[in-house]
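Researcher: Here's the sequence for the chain we discussed earlier.
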Amino acid sequence: MRDFFTSLKRPALGTAFGVMLGLLSFGQAAEAANPLELNFGLFGPRYDGRVKECTAALGTITNQFWEKESTYWNSSLRITAYGQVHETAFRPWQSDNIPRRYCSADVMLSDGKMRQVHYSIIEDGGFAGFGQGVEWCVTGLDRNWAYNPSCKAAKP
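Model: Thanks. This is the structure I predict for it:
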């Protein structure tokens, strides 16, 4: 690098470098896209707000909870019952965001303790964008702190 800057002090190299930068700055002007370059063939998600009711996700939560507890935490905990299932919000932000239905419920676990589960049902949020996805958190059992504190990040 040192030799490069000292070589620019020579008049011939400095002039050549300036001419080269000047030629590069006179590029072609930007133009609008022609009809073949437009995005006429790209199909993106069309969010219609068709999100299932809160009770539709309970089976998914039960299975995923058992799988997570047994696989990652070596625990035999299971969800045995749900109560007071209710919606807390639907599309709480702007209408152009991905539609989500936020719900909460009381859950009875196999250890006899009652806890709360907070979850959201996401339109086109399933695997590879197919089907509805579910994100959930059981209060007090967020062992990897993904939604910490007290599942606050799972709520709207």
